[in-house]
Every structure is written in structure tokens, then in C-alpha cells.
What we know:
The chain is an all-alpha fold and about 250 residues long. Helix content is about 65%, strand content about 0%. The protein is built from 13 helices and no strands. The radius of gyration is 22 Å and the shape is elongated. The model is unreliable at about 1-10, about 25-35 and about 245-250 (pLDDT under 50).
Amino acid sequence: MTDGDTQINQVPDELTMKIAALLRNGLGAQQTTTNSENLSLGIKLGGDNYALWATLMKKANGGRGRGSHVTGDPSPLLKTDTSYSRWEQDDQCVFTWIIQNLESNLVNNVSQYPTAKALWDGLATTYGSGTDSLQVFDLHKRANSLKQGSDSLEDLWSRLQGIWMSIDRRDPNPMKDPEDIQVYNKKTQEQRLYQLLMAVDDKLEPIKRDILKKEPLPSVEAAYATIRREVARVTILKSGPSDNIQRKSD
Length: 250
């Protein structure tokens, strides 16, 4: 095993802030285009953020009708096909988009790939493969110990999602039977619900207890929505009518 294989896959603070912005504003708000041949995700693959980067890049290509160039489904056209020239043009466009969203120090190492799919698979092998136990352990540890602190609720949620995304990538559901998959996913949801509630500020303890009293337990997404509404309600009550009057007079 190389030194790179044993490094713990961390989600840098700067990256988590970008995750927060992406999740709050939506992928479309983060993408900027100057013409049909340019695409910017707002983040670049730097080696330790593959899971998030690959998800956004795949969605961006799919949103432009060129998802097959990274998924390989349907298969690439043969050179003898009458539409091959158009397919090749689209493939080179996707190849360019991927390159545009890599850190500059990675470009020289991957520019020799012949197609966008070959490039995509090469990046997945280099930066996204492997289920190193130390990395998985560290991700679970950080998910269980994460605290809101001075972060906003939205930033906390985004940080958790970034960790969960990395866990799913490196430690996928091992079940094969549909019923077993459903049971496994339910237990994962419960675990993530508990992680969210442990991370949220203690001043929201009453709403956390209310969520845990529900039968059945809500999904982690539903719990987050409930907490977010409560935070908004408390904020409005704190502002009070006198504040509203003062703002109007200003």
C-alpha cells in the first residue's frame, strides 16, 4: 500500500463551505458558462474531493444531454456510423469540460486519454476507488463527533452531507436482496438522523426530543426540515414587532 492509499480522506473546511453554497443555491446557480464549450462547477477536482466532484460533474453532463459520455450507456458509436462525427465532437466537448474542472497540477497526468469515458474511468480509478478501512473509520468518526458550534444550520447540514457522500462512495451498501437493501438503508437513515441530532446546537434540545418521539422516526431530510423551520420561527419571534416597526421607520 502506498502512502497515498493510507492517507485519511478529509473534507477540507474550504470544500465544505463550497458544498454548503452548492446545496443552498442549487447546481444551476453554481454553474457559469461563457459559451456552449465551457463549464464551471465552482469546485475543481483536487484529489480529496472526488465524491462530490464526480456527482456534480455527472449531473452537469446529464443536464446538457451528454451524460452517456461519462456513463458509457448507451455505448459509444463506431467510427463507421454515419453520426460518429457528431458524437466525437460531443465527446471532445465533455472531455474539455472535465479538464476545465481539474486542478492544474492534475491536467498533465490525464490529458492523454483518448475519450471522455476513458478519462472519467481513469479519474475514478485514481481518486475514487478503494475502501481503505482507515478512511472509512475516520469518516464515521467525524460524522459522529461533528458539532454545529458557530456554524449555521445550513453549513452543518452541508458538512454532514459531504461526509455521508464520501462514506457511501467508499463503503457502499453490500446487500443484494431488495428486502435486505431496504433494511440496510433504513438503519443507515436512523444512524444519520442520530448524527444530525447530536450535531445540532443543544439549545434546540426540545425540538430534537420531539423528533425522537415520532413513530416511525422521520427521515434525516425530514428532521432537518423540521429543525430548520423551528430555527426560522425562533428567529422571527426574537426579532419582535418593535424591530419590524423600527425597520419600517428607517
